Amino acid sequence: MKKTLLLFLSMSFVLSLISCTSSPETVSSSEISGNEETAGETYKTEAYEPIPVPEFLAASKDIYMFEDYVFSNDKPIIKYQKYDTLKRAGTVLSYDELYNTSDQRSFTLCYLVDPEETNKNNGIPVLLMAYRYFGKDSDNREAEFSAIQLFNTGTHKTQTIISGITEMIASMCLYRDTVFYTTEKGSICKVNKDGTGAKRFESGSSLPYIASIYDDKLYYYGSGMKKMTTCGIDFENSEELFEIKKNHSFFVHGDYLYYAENAEPLTIEGEKYSNICIYRRKLSDLKNTKELLFDGINDFCFSGDRLYYYTSKDKANDTDDANSRLYAYDLKQSKDIGEIYVNKTPGVKRYCVSLNDKYGFGYNEIWSDITEAYYIDLNDTFILNLDNKKVNTVVW
Q: How would you class 294 by CB atoms within 10 Å of its CB: exposed for 0-12, middle for 13-18, buried for 19 or more?
């Protein structure tokens, strides 16, 4: 049976928030320190050049790309690949040390790589992670909790930021040194990376989602909300901005807020195809400015200074190369770059589900002579070098 794969978006997690009460049992922690390499690691620590630290980063529930690494949340464990030392099954980050528990029901909810902590760690990635675990509640009954911690992928040491959260964390992002997150009960929360300043805000949505944080303003929406809303980073001065429809993602770049909406499906030769429209609005006048950049988009991804996308017109042309044409738009110069990669491997379609300025990561869709259809094996992945257009296939 053919599976449909949607492009992974930088912020594709929608939900709500918390009750930050401590349980009798919390996750133990140890200091994040040292640049030691464990046996079999391929991290390079010599002559490290610190990377830029963006003000805002959104976490992922699944695939996360950072510099020369791609991480995969293969619950209950996280695996990673380093592009210059690809391994057939990837490298597994230590499960027991990662969660400080042997309970197999614990797993990562969402995560990102913290560039500031990584720079301090000589380039060895440090993950900011929200995860689920089990402990005892105030009545000494087994209960489910959420926690947030930093995890040093080189030393496998952890540092707990907050634990004992009695609702599941649904999404998370990092703005400067403050972690913002939502749970499944309609609130938006914040806590500093040192564990101080915990605060909660009732969003008015059953499933709030932080679209972006820019210039000390938080942009959010969610289930039951008709308009994109903004407030300060201390949740003050809430203001409705503009009406939104069912959408995929929001992304702030330069002076603009970019976002996507689902329009009526395109009909091509009697078949219906996705018709995603990409818009942008000026941050200085969000209520009154709306510019259509693209329509007829099938899948897309915002990353760095680029918007990457696939078109439904190509998807309707059911050939290997037409179904695998990747395009790009330069957000910095407001210029359409056009086609940047065409797959020409017979019997294989390729879709990138995550990209940065160096690489694309995605899944191979293989033709089956038995079913006479293409199918996706979620363990069969590829890494595309955007500079030389070379592709390496990796089985996790």
A: middle
Measured CA to CA, the distance from residue 382 to residue 349 in angstroms comes to: 11
- What is the rounded distance in angstroms from the CA atom of residue 18 to the CA atom of residue 15? 11
Which residues partner with 212 through β-bridges? 219
Amino acid at 187: S
Question: What does pTM read for this prediction?
Answer: 0.80
On the question of a cis peptide bond just before residue 50, with omega within 30 degrees of 0, the verdict is no
What distance lies between CA 350 and its chain's CA centroid?
A: 20
pLDDT digits (tens, 9 = 90+) for 236-251: 998 988 887 766 578 8
Evaluate whether 300 touches 310 at the Cβ level (below 8 Å). yes
Q: How far apart are CA 210 and CA 58, in angstroms?
A: 9
Alpha helices in 245-364 (DSSP H): 312-316
CA distance 59 to 171: 7
pLDDT tens profile 306-365: 999 998 888 777 665 556 789 999 999 999 999 999 888 877 888 888 888 888 888 888
| Contacts with 250 (C-beta within 8 Å, 6 or more apart), sequence order | 11, 211, 212, 219, 228, 257, 258, 259
